[in-house]
Structure to design on (421 residues):
């Protein structure tokens, strides 16, 4: 049994192992904290038995993919810091048994491997949960940007490789492409909504250097025009390190199907490339939709088989569906008058083409099984029709006999009355 509550769901099980199995399964998918408690409901001292209610509490980490999170610098004091990303602005790239962070505003001369960190659920709760890791913006606030220029950063030497329209750098196209998935790059972007209205552009450093090319459409956070709450503004002023500088634009992921030479990407990472042509990415279907699709295909196959069987038996012939059934029934005696076949039945009989009759006869000659089935059906219908006629005749005879007997009784009664007088 399941109930919906204000802060989640309540599941009721008949035994404790079943509840523990569910909690352990969910813990492998999302970061969570599990706590087990028990309460005495009733006790029988004589039989030394007791009824105990067990409660398994699962607290999930309230962070989702693509969320913009403030990692408070004070979290390191309690042992719940995010490593190198403590006191900085982080992006949630993945949520599994741990929360995977990436630096939202990396330094140009740094290494891309220093921009990533993992946060176990134990550290999250130990650091004070939402007090140390406050969500600044969610994926609903993402804005579309157009990439105008890309300059890759080459490690700590702070040297750049400029990408021009004639020469494109190698983009990540899968694990076997020989190119790292992430690389630091200085990117120039413009809002998609500003095209044709103004020439405002923005510069930012991102970890998506090997995924972006000129003309791509990316999703990001516009920190210039975003309106923050009072708590978020307080965190921005007090939670960051002294060396942190708030960026104007934070790029999150490349939009699926956008332009560029690196194929189509999904969530700023995976690409699909096949020569010079691009194939549209197919979204994965859920188990329920797959079952529904299989049921629909089975139903269509069964309906098609039934139609083929009916066509082989001669019930369907081109555009004149149902006409031959009525004609066959009329030939067998089910219709006494031509008017019972509906309006225009005589015209259909007279207008039946000789070619169709000849084709149907040829089909019967070529398919002896079909002819046999049709003959059996006609014989069965004929026997049923004769039985119905016999029953009607017997009923009429019985009625006439009853009426004759009633007439004789009336005559006898009148004679007796005359004699009595």
């Amino acid at each position: 049994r399941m109930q919906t509550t204000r802060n989640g769901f309540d599941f009721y099980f008949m035994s404790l192992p079943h509840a523990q199995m569910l909690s352990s399964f969910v813990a492998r998918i999302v970061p969570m904290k599990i706590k087990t408690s028990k309460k005495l409901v009733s006790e029988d001292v004589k039989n030394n038995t007791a009824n105990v209610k067990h409660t398994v509490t699962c607290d999930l980490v309230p962070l989702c993919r693509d969320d913009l999170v403030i990692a408070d610098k004070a979290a390191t004091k309690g042992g719940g810091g995010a490593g190198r990303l403590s006191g900085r602005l982080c992006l949630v790239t993945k949520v599994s048994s741990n929360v995977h962070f990436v630096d939202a505003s990396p330094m140009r001369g740094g290494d891309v491997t220093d921009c990533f960190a993992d946060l176990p659920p134990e550290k999250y709760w130990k650091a004070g949960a939402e007090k140390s890791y406050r969500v600044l913006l969610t994926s609903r606030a993402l804005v579309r940007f157009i990439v105008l220029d890309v300059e890759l950063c080459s490690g700590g030497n702070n040297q750049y490789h400029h990408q021009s329209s004639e020469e494109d750098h190698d983009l990540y196209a899968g694990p076997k492409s020989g190119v790292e998935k992430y690389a630091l790059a200085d990117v120039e972007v413009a809002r998609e909504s500003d095209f044709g209205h103004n020439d405002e552009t923005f510069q930012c450093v991102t970890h998506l250097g090997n995924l972006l090319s000129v003309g791509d459409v990316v999703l990001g956070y516009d920190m210039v025009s975003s309106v923050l709450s009072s708590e978020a503004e307080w965190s921005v002023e007090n939670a960051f390190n002294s060396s942190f500088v708030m960026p104007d634009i934070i790029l999150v992921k490349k939009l699926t199907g956008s332009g560029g030479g690196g194929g189509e990407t999904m969530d700023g990472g995976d690409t699909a490339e096949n020569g010079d042509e691009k194939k549209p990415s197919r979204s994965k279907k859920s188990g329920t939709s797959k079952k529904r699709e299989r049921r629909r295909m089975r139903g269509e196959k069964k309906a098609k088989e039934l139609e083929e069987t009916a066509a082989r038996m001669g019930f369907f012939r081109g555009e004149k569906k149902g006409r031959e059934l009525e004609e066959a029934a009329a030939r067998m005696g089910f219709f006494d008058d031509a008017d019972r076949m509906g309006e225009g039945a005589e015209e259909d009989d007279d207008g039946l083409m000789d070619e169709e009759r000849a084709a149907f006869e040829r089909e019967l000659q070529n398919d002896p099984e079909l002819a046999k089935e049709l003959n059996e059906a006609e014989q069965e219908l004929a026997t049923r029709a004769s039985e119905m006629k016999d029953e009607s005749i017997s009923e009429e005879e019985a009625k006439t006999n009853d009426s004759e007997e009633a007439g004789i009784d009336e005559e006898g009664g009148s004679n007796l009355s005359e004699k009595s007088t």
About this structure: The mean pLDDT is 75.
